[in-house]
Structure to design on (287 residues):
């Protein structure tokens, strides 16, 4: 058996094992967070769903994780699941999380290591985002291109920028490392330059400062199949609804599908509703 065939066989076996974990209810899942968390997905125009989205509650707070897999056949699917599992496996032992930035760096490096060890020489990886809510604050980290936003007071507030070439060009222009014309030439380049599973991966997009939680906040995470199809105003209108998080995520997915885009990517939405008592508590967190 050739090395490539062996690697493909290993990933097929792993994918089956991961699906078995889901079927047996042994994986981290949205059900651990009650009605406050909703997760909905669509394959879009693709044959394989290569996104993974999960959430976990603990005494430390709530951890949300969303990954958009990169790779052919089952490679992207396996990479996304490995990435999300790495974050939640790292979070599970915590009773308190005092240094979210350190946690994110170590968890994302673990995701990177797991992917590289699993896929070998095959090309693959995942855009990965994680949001931690605890101690009255929101913290996030992201590698690749996942959208993270906060809905507050009837308004959507984008948080993450994305690690794509256009964002990198704008940053370089602001720092004087790129001319205005060069930045303009790069404005339509959406190629991802960083993701877990990539050789040389090390840089994360981190929130500049923690965001204090307020009653009624909604935290939103989306992959390409959703944020490329819906405008911020369309998303904002849907989140005005008072339905459960699960119903709202379903409505977002349905709205994206209704665009009838023949090239629609996999789409995933993860939504956390913050209840009033959660925003007021310092030692505990409820959703």
């Amino acid at each position: 058996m050739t090395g490539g065939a062996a690697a493909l066989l290993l990933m097929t076996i792993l994918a089956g094992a991961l699906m078995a974990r889901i079927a047996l209810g042994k994986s981290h899942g949205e059900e651990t967070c009650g009605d406050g968390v909703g997760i909905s997905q669509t394959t879009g125009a693709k044959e394989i769903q290569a996104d993974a989205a999960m959430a976990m509650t603990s005494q430390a707070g709530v951890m949300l994780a969303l990954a958009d897999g990169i790779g052919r056949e089952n490679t992207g699917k396996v990479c996304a699941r490995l990435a999300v599992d790495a974050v939640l496996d790292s979070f599970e032992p915590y009773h308190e999380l005092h240094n979210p930035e350190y946690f994110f760096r170590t968890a994302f490096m673990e995701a990177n290591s797991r992917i590289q060890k699993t896929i070998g020489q095959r090309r693959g990886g995942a855009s990965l985002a994680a949001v931690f809510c605890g101690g009255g604050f929101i913290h996030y980290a992201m590698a690749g291109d996942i959208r993270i936003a906060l809905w507050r007071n009837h308004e959507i507030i984008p948080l993450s920028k994305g690690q794509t070439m256009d964002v990198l060009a704008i940053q370089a222009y602001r720092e004087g490392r790129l001319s205005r014309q060069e930045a303009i030439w790069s404005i339509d380049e959406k190629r991802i330059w960083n993701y877990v599973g990539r050789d040389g991966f090390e840089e994360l997009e981190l929130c500049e400062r923690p965001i204090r939680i307020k009653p009624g906040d909604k935290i939103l995470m989306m992959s390409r199949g959703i944020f490329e199809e819906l405008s911020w105003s369309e998303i904002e209108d849907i989140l005005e609804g008072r339905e459960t998080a699960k119903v709202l995520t379903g409505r977002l997915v349905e709205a994206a599908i209704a665009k009838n885009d023949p090239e629609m990517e996999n789409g995933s939405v993860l939504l956390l509703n913050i209840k009033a008592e959660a925003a007021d508590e310092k030692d505990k967190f409820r959703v």
In short: The chain has nine helices and eleven strands. The first strand starts at residue 37 and ends at 42. The chain has one domain: 3-163+196-280.
